[in-house]
Amino acid sequence: MKKIFKTFVTITLIGLVLIPLFYYILYPNYNKLIGPIKRFDIQRSSEEIMFQILTTVVPTRDKVLGISDTVSNSNSIEESLSKDFVLERKVLEEMNTRILINSIEVDGLVYEGLESKTMDRGFWHFPTSNLPGQKGNVVIIGHRYAKLPPQKDTFFNLDKVKVGDKIQVVQSDIEYTYIVADTRVVEKNDISILQDFTDYRITLVTCTPLWSAKQRLVIVGKLDKLYQNT
């Protein structure tokens, strides 16, 4: 009888500890705790790991034939900036510019600089491209796996963006909304994506496939509306 009573008391005490713990700590933070687990795609991750193994262990047809996989322009997109280019002022940083993609929970500051290491701070506005809202091409480049979710200033999930999604560029008193019109993969030295255009567009660039810098994932959005923040 005493043993049963002790067991009952022990279970009761454990319950008195666990119930408040769940109610006051775990339950309010449920989304933060379970979010990364929900976003983890086992099938996708296993496919990416297998891709890395196969491309490392199994030689490609070009390697067997001794054909080089490099082209004449060996510089990557991020390294294509002319050494003579001068950045007179950091307009976007002065206006506290942010980029938001709600569909993949991206929210981060946009920085300006002459070197790709600018991406260590956040998203990098490629200096030869246009400014947000201007006619032409606004190019923003970001790391993919240097920062991982739930951090939001990363392009880790950029491959999940779909045509029709919104890309917002928010400044001190203006908000530009771009609608995704195209997604594609290009070679890492394909600088054609940096060229100017006659429309109003934004081009987002990051590495692909995941955990590799072999190619570049490119997302193109077209300017939809201009909102004045009040």
From TrEMBL:
GO molecular function, one term: hydrolase activity
Keyword Transmembrane helix assigned: yes
Stored InterPro entries: Sortase, Sortase_dom-sf
Keywords recorded for this protein, A-Z: Hydrolase, Membrane, Transmembrane, Transmembrane helix
Segments passing through the bilayer: 7-26
Any Pfam family: Sortase
Record's protein name: Sortase family protein
Species the sequence originates in: candidate division WS6 bacterium GW2011_GWB1_33_6
Lineage of producing organism: Bacteria, Candidatus Dojkabacteria
